[in-house]
Design goal:
By secondary structure, the chain is of the alpha/beta class. It folds into 2 domains: 3-255 and 462-485, Aldehyde Dehydrogenase, Chain A, domain 1; 259-451, Aldehyde Dehydrogenase, Chain A, domain 2, CATH 3.40.309.10. It has helices at 40-55, 57-60, 63-79, 81-92, 96-99, 103-120, 157-170, 185-197, 215-221, 234-245, 269-281, 301-313, 333-348, 385-388, 404-411, 427-436, 469-476, and strands at 3-4, 6-8, 11-13, 20-24, 31-36, 125-128, 136-144, 147-151, 174-178, 204-206, 227-231, 250-254, 259-263, 291-297, 352-355, 375-378, 395-401, 416-417, 419-423, 441-444, 459-460, 463-464, 477-485. Helix 7 (157-170) links the parallel strand 8 (147-151) and strand 9 (174-178). The longest helix is centred in the N-terminal third of the chain and has 18 residues, at 103-120. It is globular, with a radius of gyration of 23 Å. The termini are far apart. The model has no long low-confidence stretch (mean pLDDT 98). The structure holds nicotinamide-adenine-dinucleotide and (2E,4E)-2-amino-6-oxohexa-2,4-dienoic acid. Belongs to the aldehyde dehydrogenase family.
């Protein structure tokens, strides 16, 4: 049986405790690998390796040398594209047709984009007057923050992990990554790519395990971790923030959402249907930016519901290798239980089930997979659990509205503030809505479209801080002020 080990100081190592946990393929229930679970010993070894590497060749490299290596990392991912694709799809159950367009290419791009950015970023410099007339030169330099703890989720494992590791390394830091226990494979594989690309030992370290009372908690509590960057649930973010308070460590938190789509009667309905289908059902609804609440202006409500239903029913459910499949399984049976509990709650709360609401019939060899049907409801009250809580599954509730003000108020009614999508052909309305919606990102007539140089993050309980472009550099560097009296 394959074993997945930690990657510490450039080498794959097992746990001293000998504790292993199962990595299971959600599509067929087969055991993919046994994964070593890190205890405090392994986490400490990884942090020590990361600390030492800051003082080694990595710390002495020029930006040009460092960024060349990161380009080689990106090229290394691309060269081993099929292995990354296989590993990601086995762990998650997502269709290869999706991961080959999004997850793996973005894994490579995250290194190139931030390597190129760091080469071109300027800092301020001022010539100052001084009373003696000689003057002074006051400027700022960016220095790496140090050892960064990276804790990542399971929904887009390689994409979201490299989204943090790419800029952290570009800025000259070293990292200790704790991937989700559900999806350890691509983070582990990246160690081989790092070695082949010439990344010095100790710069990229990986420890596997769970969250509380396991590798995640040990990493966030470790006093020699300088900053923590996290993507995951809001509740976990609160716990991590508390851990980071000890030692006054900085955090970047990308958290949960319950995102609203607003569809005005003046929209291009074809585009609104296509975009809402993607935002509700892509990656089996396991996208933090996905739309789980859809508000539709009353004159087009019935037509919108009927067309979204038709679109959902046309999705092709299948296993990752099925070239026709555009809808995979959920990440695990545990998550499936959670999603199905909301499907039940919707019925209990009196929803009209427009489509789905259960488990699809699958061929015998796939019958044990973590499948659920794409699901649409109408008719629930605004305060129902299904409408207010993040489900993170392939489902949405559609509710009619009558005025622009009402739609904005509904969109803003929850404590989350991650993303929103507005569908309208009226430019003034689009600008007004984008301004008034309380969310870190607002799409107009699109979804999941973003230049990586722009700011990404959530407002309200959906996060703290912004990453992306220079905003990532703000988090992963310390600006040092140097003033030289001439
Ligand atoms: P999660 O919070 O359960 O776990 C995320 C990671 O944190 C995992 O690696 C887990 O092991 C670790 N963890 C859990 N408890 C911990 C603890 N006490 N200390 C340290 N680490 C701990 O989230 P998940 O279920 O893996 O991912 C789904 C969630 O992530 C959803 O809420 C989704 O909205 C959110 N998410 C947000 C974004 C964003 O950019 N805002 C992106 C993707 C996912
Ligand atoms: O595209 C990204 O950079 C990003 N952070 C996406 C987040 C998706 C959430 O599931």
């Amino acid at each position: 049986m394959k074993e997945i080990k930690h990657f510490i100081n450039g080498q794959y190592v097992g746990s001293a405790s000998g504790k292993l946990f199962d990595n299971v393929n959600p599509v067929n229930g087969q055991l993919i690998a046994k994964v070593h679970e890190a205890g405090e010993t392994e986490v400490d070894a990884a942090v020590k390796a990361a600390r030492a590497a800051l003082k080694g060749p990595w710390g002495r490299m020029t930006v040009a040398e460092r960024t060349e290596i990161l380009h080689r990392v990106a090229d290394g991912i691309t060269a081993r594209f099929d292995e990354f694709l296989e590993a990601e799809c086995q762990d998650t159950g997502k269709p290869k047709s999706l991961a080959s367009h999004i997850d793996i290419p973005r894994g490579a791009a995250n290194f190139k984009v931030f390597a190129d950015l760091i080469k071109n970023v300027a800092t301020e410099a001022f010539e100052m007057a001084t009373p003696d007339g000689a003057g002074a030169l006051n400027y700022a330099v960016r220095r790496p923050k140090g050892v960064i703890g990276v804790i990542s989720p399971w929904n887009l494992p390689l994409l979201l992990m490299t989204w943090k590791v790419g800029p952290a390394l570009a800025c000259g830091n070293t990292v200790v990554v704790k991937p989700s226990e559900e999806t350890p494979s691509t983070t582990a594989l990246l160690g081989e790519v790092m070695n082949a690309a010439g990344v010095p030992a100790g710069v990229y370290n990986v420890v596997h395990g769970f969250g509380g009372d396991s590798a995640g908690a040990f990493l966030t509590a470790h006093p020699d971790v300088d900053a923590i960057t996290f993507t995951g649930e809001t509740g976990t973010g609160e716990t991590i923030m508390r851990a980071a308070a000890k030692g006054v460590r900085q955090v970047s938190l990308e958290l949960g959402g319950k995102n609203a789509g607003i569809v005005f009667a003046d929209c291009d309905l074809d585009k609104a249907i296509e975009g809402t289908l993607r935002s509700a059902f892509a990656n089996c609804g396991q996208v933090c930016l996905g739309t789980e609440r859809v508000y539709v202006e009353r004159p087009i409500f019935d037509e919108f519901v009927a067309r979204l239903k038709a679109g959902a029913e046309a999705l092709k459910i299948g296993e990752p290798n099925d070239p026709e499949a555009n809808f995979g399984s959920l990440v695990s049976h545990k998550h499936r239980e959670k999603v199905l509990s909301y499907y039940q709650k919707a019925k209990d709360e009196g929803a009209t089930v427009v489509t789905g609401g259960g488990v699809p019939e699958m061929p015998a060899h796939l019958a044990g997979g973590a499948w659920v049907q794409p699901t649409i409801w109408t008719g629930l009250p605004d305060d129902s659990a299904v409408v207010t809580e993040e489900i993170f599954g392939p489902c949405c509730h559609i509710r009619p509205f009558d005025t622009e003000e009402e739609a904005i108020e509904l969109a803003n009614s929850l404590p989350y503030g991650l993303a929103s999508a507005i569908w309208t052909e009226n430019a003034s309305r689009a600008h007004r809505g984008a301004g008034q919606i309380e969310a870190g990102i607002v799409w107009v007539n699109s979804w999941f479209l973003r230049d990586l140089r722009t700011a990404f993050g959530g407002s309200k309980q959906s996060g703290i801080g912004r990453e992306g472009g220079v905003h990532s550099l703000e988090f992963y560097t310390e600006l040092k002020n140097v003033c030289i009296k001439l």
